[in-house]
Amino acid sequence: TGVTCRVVVPEGPAPAVGDPRRFRQVMLNLLLNARDAMPEGGNIDVGVTREAGSALIVVRDHGAGLDPAADKHAFEPFWTTKEKGGGLGLALSRGIVEEMGGTLDLQGHPQGPGAEALLVLPLAKD
Questions:
Q1: Backbone phi, then psi, for 37, in 5-degree steps?
Q2: What is the rounded distance in angstroms from the CA atom of residue 14 to the CA atom of residue 77?
Q3: β-strand 103-108 against 42-51: which pairing, if any?
Q4: Confidence (pTM)
Q5: Terminus of the chain with fewer CB atoms < 10 Å: N or C?
């Protein structure tokens, strides 16, 4: 099944503070989780905006959404809803983001099915 990733950066680059290699690790984890949430295929939307001195990155899938247990436990080490995987991806990703001075949260998609990861990082100073 096919998954399409659409990236929207309406304001141009938003250079954030942090280690690019570790940021790639976080983004890969979020994209793989979004893909896994749509076993029949679908769209992953990635948006980047600037908000109050921060870069806001949203990774949105159009899968089944978050069940109540996932909403509570998604960032706990070794907790997973997947048949394969160790349940460390989101926990490690949140730790990386927090080390870079940011936040990482999940929420149900506000306008329909699916879920979104909300990643906020401080913008680099000019």
A1: -75, -10
A2: 30
A3: unpaired
A4: 0.84
A5: C
